[in-house]
TrEMBL record:
Top-rank lineage group of the source organism: Bacteria
PROSITE patterns: S1 (PS50126)
UniProt source species: Streptomyces niveus (Streptomyces spheroides)
Residue span(s) of domain S1 motif: 17-86
Protein name (Swiss-Prot/TrEMBL): S1 motif domain-containing protein
Family annotation (Gene3D superfamilies): Nucleic acid-binding proteins
Gene Ontology molecular function: nucleic acid binding
Amino acid sequence: MVTEAEWERVQGELRFGQVFTGTVVRVPRPGAIGVFVDIGLSVGGFVDVVLLPRRRSEDWPVEGTVTEFEVWWVHSGRQQIRLKPSDPQYLCEDFADFVARYRPNWPSDIGKAVSGCGVINP
């Protein structure tokens, strides 16, 4: 964990849809939780299970995978940047339907500051 001041600083620099090249550093329970990603900031990144391929956890990125991720939202309580894979091979098969159902404003959120947006986990 980082200090509250550092967390606020990091959040203040983030934009929805901002792309980071990251390295998958941990896949604790394939098919059940999600993956932890190092995106080169003092705060960790995480891709939730709902954004990863559902049919086969073998299609998830494995530890050491380097690929691009986009800022999806932030989890202030955990001081965590929530990401979505940019590469469609690592994205859930029904992403368009998922967005329509849970984040219909996603396209218009892209480029906006995440700080103070109040986005919650779908």
